[in-house]
Design brief:
The protein contains 3 helices and 2 strands; from the N terminus they run αββαα. With about 100 residues, it is mainly alpha-helical. The chain has one domain. The chain has a two-stranded antiparallel ribbon. A hairpin with a 5-residue loop joins strand 1 and strand 2. The radius of gyration is 13 Å and the shape is globular. The two termini are about 25 Å apart.
Length: about 100
């Protein structure tokens, strides 16, 4: 998964304006591992989003985690491998 996305998409579940659709517990579940932006996934016949090797990690999830000082192990690994740069995230985005 690519960690180059720096700004949440318009439909990101982590945006404050999307608060009515997702509980805090659900957001924690999304952010607990790699969570691809749905706009960079393929969907299967059941309508599920399937991340591929070229999918981008959800920027909203990254910002949400960084604001809480809770980066995941993969975020830290990707940072050491220079595949993720938290300083490029749009920390002014309206993420909960």
């Amino acid at each position: 998964m690519n960690y180059a996305m720096t700004t949440p998409c318009d439909d990101c579940p982590f945006l404050k304006r999307m608060a009515h659709g997702f509980t805090l517990a659900r957001l924690r579940e999304f952010a607990s591992g790699e969570f691809a932006c749905h706009k960079t996934c393929d969907d299967n016949e059941d309508g599920d989003f399937i991340a591929g090797s070229d999918s981008l990690h959800c920027a909203g999830a990254l910002i949400w985690l960084e604001k809480r000082g809770r980066s995941t192990q993969m975020m830290r690994i990707m940072e050491r491998l220079r595949g993720y740069d938290r300083t490029k995230l749009d920390m002014t985005a309206e993420v909960r």
